[in-house]
Design a protein that fits this description.
- The complex is a heterodimer of chains A (383) and B (628).
- Chain A has 383 residues and is mainly alpha-helical.
- Chain A has one domain (21-369).
- Helix content of chain A is 68%, strand content 3%.
- In chain A, helix 5 packs parallel to helix 8 (169-185) and helix 8 (169-185) packs antiparallel against helix 15.
- With 628 residues, chain B is of the alpha+beta class.
- In chain B, the strands form six sheets. In chain B, strands 2, 3, 4, 5, 10, 17 and 18 form a seven-stranded mixed sheet that branches. Chain B has a five-stranded antiparallel sheet with strand order 12-11-21-20-19. A three-stranded antiparallel sheet of chain B has the order 1-8-9.
- The radius of gyration of chain B is 35 Å and the shape is elongated.
- The chains are: A mainly alpha (383), B alpha+beta (628).
- At the A-B interface, helix 8, helix 12, helix 14 and helix 15 of A face helix 1, helix 2 and strand 1 of B.
């Protein structure tokens, strides 16, 4: 069953067939969101493609090629790659822990000759694949049985723990949230979910003890931004001023004064949503959120329209990953949660993040293109 | 193989679909929350944020806290803050920075290196950032620029705070100075240090208690317009000013001692024998710490470094001198405590004594004749003390030295104390690899040879003799902020009162009974002073020179003349103050050191009653008003 080979003669025809199966409407929405990102990077640079917008456009173009390539590859191949990819990501995470180069005060980057990679980005995709693969092989009842549940928890806990050690609280949180959401979708019994959530709430004071000082400081600052108006509170306060002063219609493209005067830190990365709000107002920022909702809705629709449990879970996993990014980033810049270093997908400047997000969309699209492929529960797909 | 074969997959899909919809519902709810928050920020609170941002934006700046003052025991300010008049240039308001600098040079002096520094600063910053062109302007310069302001677009006059040392070189060694924060200082995470132009304590007390003096930074929010220029202040949270430090010094005594020692290379310490309060700590010559604060020029710094009188060294605590005859009271005490003599033991002085084939000479060529304890101290007879040292041996002398603080530091609050040197068998073996010679014991007995002491140690030694043998420690802090540094009475060292009294009688004879310092007697009832002179050789007198007649000090070059020393306490009846004084290469102790010491001691005694009532003003009142 594992073998899936193209007959050399039929190959070309099948690729064209598959291309026509791609949800081009979704690709269009993604391109519009990325386009908003280009415009904002152009504005932040003071009306210039340098230094950010031009590079971001090249990355998006590369991302599109990745998206289409990934979409065309059979979902069964992705299934067979799930565990190896997961294992490789874990190895990279450990490597970064051992030999990681300092970046932003934490060990997050691995230097591979000329390029630097952020293994935690790969981890998000591999985790989705691995969990989907694992739950694909379980019946509904099995999901809640301790013997089957514990490996799942291990698959989630190991990378979350490693990323937390870097320390990168934001990414670790997203990994855990995506992992537990997939567990929920796979059908974990409410009898387990409800008591766990209650115990989790009770454990918050204990978890607090394990936070790093700088992480605690962020929480304090969040609760009282005036506490440190020149330190961590500065970002939140300046972000709120920029966003609030945008009003309903915004100050207009290239007219965001707060951001242009360097009051806003990280304006081209984590805080870019603020520029959207300042220059295009409630309407512009709201529209961006609506576009994101459309992407998420497409992910749900693709998931529900797919035959195999693996593909469904992958599609939802990709959507959830995107959702948590957006939620955390936007809540952060609006002062709803403490500051964590999480970019806004497709819009924030950043290479690894852009390519991973596009890869994720590729998987979503592969699930869509191969929605009628059936895979039995016990389809061991090892190479 | 097929989905239909697996009946339970249908159940799995139903659960998946249901739960996907639950998550979707949650997602929509959360996005509605985000939109609501955006509505709150961008519609409901828009006016507030628009005020802050639309035409004006807030900028936050750290405000330098006012540095704590340093006061003398009566509250006389020794280190304070004063207005610093500055000229500031805003590059974007001028047509050309070069031409603007040319114009302002008509009223203030701008050297080429200074000009270069300004231009570099201008290039490094956006054009609206103000650059300091000149600081510490005189009132005339300030007024001139103010008058010509219309012809000087882009220049702003400003008055900031800067550290000021009103007594300049009279306290430089004690207070030290503040100067610009260096790269190394930035290891300290305190944000205050990152304020442009901030000054940090670099030496002396300024360095020792810098964290207390520094205070905490304040923050102000200023509105700046589109070009970044400040429009008005929105809010201001004043930082905490630094703590005031009150010293035990009496500035009147310090000033007087400094003036009395005038141009000499000299040091003097005055302290309370019971409390250990240091009332004066003089090291001459000094340097002007204000120069360091402003940024000293290379030439001035080189001049200070190459001055043979070593103005940068705090001689009172870091100058190490052979104590000469001022060491003799200690040897006498050791001899009495160890019962190697009685007060009446008579030793004959013929002008020289022999040990093997080495002659040891007395300073008096013809000799003193028969000498007992009182006579030996009164006339400072060397032969008498050679004999005492011979009977005692170096070990017992060494032991007595350590009890009196010689060869040790006192953890004194002014940094830079030196230990001096108390020689011992072990020390000699370790440093030279040779064993101790008896001749060296004899030389040590008159405070020559290897032994080295600092003026602070000599003063503490005298205080411990005069206070009944208590291990008093010197200190100079009366209070730091709200924390008082007054200490309990020191512990007794277990010396016999009789031996102490005999030595004090001998020192009394030196000044009041026609001894070596008879001319420096204080002849006022109740103010009588007892002391001991010392003249320490810095060169060796050869046998040939002695045969020809010893060369008079005045005929020697300055750096080869003897050091003049004097130690004393007063009043004799109830000792309260101790003094030590050294004049480098000053000649004889009785001529060069005893007279100024007498005058300084007299002033100290005269100021005594007022001191007892004085309550130093504490800084808290000042701080209260500023915070309000």
């Amino acid at each position: 069953m594992a073998g899936f080979t193209f007959a050399p003669a039929g190959r070309e025809a099948r690729i064209i067939d598959k291309l026509s199966e791609i949800n081009w409407g979704l690709v269009g929405i993604i391109a519009v969101i990325a386009g908003i990102g280009f415009a904002m990077l152009y504005s932040v640079a003071g009306g210039s493609f340098e230094p950010w917008a031009s590079k971001q456009m090249i990355r998006f173009a590369a991302g599109l090629i990745i998206l289409i390539t990934v979409a065309l590859i059979d979902i069964r191949i992705w299934m067979s790659l799930a565990y190896p990819a997961y294992a490789m990501s874990i190895v990279l995470l450990i490597a970064v822990e051992l030999a990681g180069e300092m970046g932003g005060g934490a060990e997050r980057w691995l230097n591979l000759g000329p390029i630097q990679v952020q293994p935690s980005e790969f981890m998000k995709i591999s985790l989705i694949l691995a969990l989907a693969r694992y739950f694909h092989g379980l019946t509904l009842d099995e999901v809640s049985r301790p013997f089957q549940l514990l490996p799942a928890l291990f698959i989630i806990g190991l990378p979350a723990g490693l990323v937390l050690m870097q320390p990168n609280l934001g990414t670790a949180t997203i990994i855990a949230l995506v992992g537990f959401s997939l567990l929920f979708l796979a059908g974990l019994s409410w009898k387990i979910i409800v008591p766990t959530i209650m115990a989790g709430l009770a454990a918050i004071p204990v978890a607090w003890q394990f936070l790093h000082d700088y992480q605690k400081e962020r929480v304090y600052t969040f609760l009282d931004p005036d506490r440190d108006p020149l330190g961590a509170g500065y970002n939140i306060l300046q972000a709120k001023i920029a966003l609030g002063s945008g009003g309903v219609f915004g100050k207009g493209f290239l007219n965001g004064t707060q951001s242009h005067l360097n009051f806003l830190p990280e304006k081209h990365t984590d805080f870019i949503f603020v520029i959207v709000g300042e220059e295009f107002g409630l309407i512009g920022a709201g529209l961006l959120l609506v576009l994101y909702v459309l992407v998420l809705a497409s992910a749900v629709s693709i998931a529900l329209d797919t035959r195999s449990q693996f593909a469904r879970l992958v599609a939802m996993g990709i959507g959830l990953n995107l959702l948590f990014y957006i939620l955390i980033n936007v809540s952060m810049v609006m002062g709803l949660i403490p500051v964590v270093g999480i970019p806004l997908p497709l819009v924030s400047y950043g290479g690894t993040a852009m390519l991973t997000v596009m890869f994720g969309f590729g998987l979503l699209m592969s699930a869509h293109v191969h929605r009628n492929v059936e895979m039995a529960r016990h389809s061991g797909a090892f190479f | 193989m097929s989905l239909l074969n697996d009946g339970r997959d249908h159940v799995r899909f139903k659960t998946f679909s249901r739960r996907s919809l639950i998550l979707s519902g949650g997602t929509l709810a959360l996005f509605s929350g985000l939109l609501a928050r955006m509505y709150q920020l961008q519609v409901l609170e828009q006016d507030r944020y628009a005020t802050l941002a639309e035409d004006n934006r807030i900028n936050m700046e750290l405000l330098a806290p006012l540095r704590g003052r340093i006061l003398d025991r009566f509250g006389v300010p020794l280190a304070t803050n004063r207005q610093n008049y500055r000229v500031i240039l805003i590059p974007e308001q001028t047509d050309s920075v070069e031409r603007a600098l040319d114009r302002v040079s008509q009223y203030i002096i701008l050297g080429a290196p200074q000009r270069e520094k300004i231009l570099k600063e201008v290039r490094r910053n956006p054009r609206f950032v103000p650059i300091t062109v000149a600081e510490n302007l005189s009132w005339e310069e300030f007024a001139a620029i103010n008058f010509h302001a219309p012809e000087l677009p882009g220049f702003i006059l400003d008055a900031g705070e800067t550290r000021d040392y009103p007594y300049a070189d009279k306290l430089s060694h004690i207070l030290g100075y503040v100067a610009a924060v260096s790269e190394k200082d930035l290891a300290d995470p305190d944000p205050v240090l990152r304020i442009p132009g901030f000054r940090i304590g670099k030496l002396g007390i300024e360095r020792q208690v810098d964290p207390a003096l520094r205070g905490k930074a304040g923050v102000r929010q200023v509105e700046v317009n589109a070009s970044g220029r400040k429009i008005r202040e929105l809010s201001r949270r004043v930082g905490e000013p630094g703590d005031d430090v009150v010293l035990t010094l009496d500035m009147e005594i310090q000033k007087f001692a400094q003036a009395r020692l005038a141009e000499e290379a000299a040091a003097c310490v005055v302290m309370d024998v019971h409390s250990g309060d240091v009332l004066a700590l003089v090291s001459n010559p000094g340097f002007d710490p204000n120069e360091f604060n402003r940024g000293i020029s290379h030439a001035s710094y080189q001049a200070l470094l190459s001055d043979p009188k070593l103005p940068l060294i705090n001689k009172a605590i870091a100058g190490q001198y052979p104590p000469g005859s001022t060491f003799k009271p200690l040897v006498a005490l050791a001899a009495l405590e160890n019962n190697v003599i009685s007060p009446e033991t008579a030793i004959h002085c013929s002008g020289a004594t022999w040990l093997g084939n080495h002659a040891f000479h007395c300073w008096k060529k013809g000799g003193h004749g028969a000498m007992n304890l009182i006579g030996g101290l009164k006339h400072s007879c060397d032969i008498y003390f050679y004999e005492l040292a011979r009977r005692l041996g170096i070990d017992r002398i060494e032991e007595m030295c350590h009890r009196f603080g010689l060869g040790e530091t006192f953890k004194f609050e002014v940094p830079g104390e030196k230990t001096g040197l108390v020689p011992s068998r072990g020390w000699k073996q370790a440093t030279t690899g040779q064993s101790w010679q008896q001749g060296e014991t004899l030389i040590t007995g008159i405070g020559q040879g290897y032994v080295l002491t600092t003026p602070l140690q000599l003063c503490v030694m005298t205080a411990r003799l005069a206070n009944g043998g208590r291990k008093v420690m010197p200190h100079i802090f009366r209070s730091v902020g709200a924390e008082s540094h007054v200490r309990p009475e020191a512990d007794l060292m277990g010396l016999s009162d009789r031996a102490l009294q005999l030595v004090m009688n001998g020192m009394n004879a030196v000044t009041n009974e026609g001894g070596t310092a008879a001319r420096s007697r204080i002849d006022i009832e109740g103010f009588e002073m007892a002391g001991k002179t010392g003249t320490s050789q810095v060169r060796r007198i050869t046998r040939e020179e002695r045969a020809r007649g010893v060369i008079k000090n005045e005929d020697l070059p300055w750096e080869r003349r003897d050091h003049a020393l004097f130690i004393a306490y007063a009043p004799v009846a109830a000792p309260r103050y101790a003094i030590s004084l050294i004049v480098e290469h000053g000649g004889s102790g009785s001529k060069a050191a005893a007279p100024p010491a007498r005058d300084i001691m007299l002033l100290t005694l005269q100021r005594d009653p007022s001191r007892m009532e004085a309550i130093p003003p504490i800084a808290r009142a000042r701080r209260g008003t500023e915070e309000g």
